Amino acid sequence: MRKLTFLLIMIWLLSLSCFAQSPTSTPATQMPTQSLAKDWIALMVSGLALALSLLSFRQKSTESRLTLRKQLTDLFEKLTTLNTEFARFKTNKDNYPPGYPGLLGDQRRFFVRQASFIASQIRTLVSPFEYLLLAGGHDDINDWAQAEHFFQLAISSAADRIDRGIAIRGYGRYLFGHGRLTEARVQYAESLHCFNGSADRVRVFRAETFERWAGNESEWGNKKEADRLLEQAMTEFRQLENPVRREYEVRRVEAGFSHKSGSKGEVPEKNSL
């Protein structure tokens, strides 16, 4: 769009330059005043036509981008519905026909790749959270190179530090899922730096990050580290100013301690952020 606009303007300016360099200073007998006026009018009309063409092209381009944006929203909605359907299948497999997971997988693969194609056409209209959805979707269809790509896009496009922390935390969870434990711990630690502050809002983000990290460590059998991280989460929740939220969160995290419950710490869903 910008290149085409620049090219059209340059062509018009070149025409104007050639006209300005024509022998207008010659005697009036060689170029009548009436003819000169007609040439200027023609040039002005062509300039106006160029301006109108550019405005029309820009409007059509904007409409096209908005149409793609709507299509992307619809695809994300379909992916969410698909994830819900798969969760229902896992809880009651007897009510579904054989091969049903494969059918859902084919649909997911189509939706994810179509969504990633559209997102690449309208980068400025895609949010960090949507990039995280695309990253998780590509992880689900085992396209890990694209999953990495969209995690990095989610991190780099996050302008707000909270959004950036959530994106980095999601990438850390992804790395744990692929056995890249050292890299995953670096990402979780980095995400905690994005949640600096003493307000309840950032304390909750910080505590939830410790809690999710603990769940991932517990999955890999690192019970001591998981309990240490849960204690960190508890410390953050105990400092909440809201007494009702503070009591609720502390009790909930206490139930997640492996040495008390005999089970793993709370583990977030695979696609949680």
Summarize the structure.
With 273 residues, this protein is mainly alpha-helical.
What do these coordinates show?
Helix content is 77%, strand content 0%. The protein contains eleven helices and no strands. Helix 4 (128-140) runs antiparallel to helix 5 (144-157) and helix 7 runs antiparallel to helix 8 (200-219). The longest helix is centred in the first third of the chain and has 59 residues, at 33-91. The radius of gyration is 30 Å and the shape is elongated. The two termini are 36 Å apart. Residues 263-271 have low confidence and may be disordered.
Give the SSE layout:
Blueprint: H1 2-20, H2 33-91, H3 100-121, H4 128-140, H5 144-157, H6 161-177, H7 181-193, H8 200-219, H9 223-238, H10 243-254, H11 258-261
- The N- and C-terminal alpha carbons lie at a distance of 36 Å
Beta-strand portion reads under 5%
In which range does the helix fraction lie? over 70%
Describe the largest sheet: none
- Arithmetic mean of pLDDT: 84
Counted by DSSP, the helix tally is 11
Count the beta strands. 0
Coarse structural class: mainly alpha
String of helices and strands: HHHHHHHHHHH
Which overall shape is indicated by the principal axes computed on the Cα atoms?
A: elongated
- Taking all Cα atoms into account, the compactness measure Rg is 30 Å
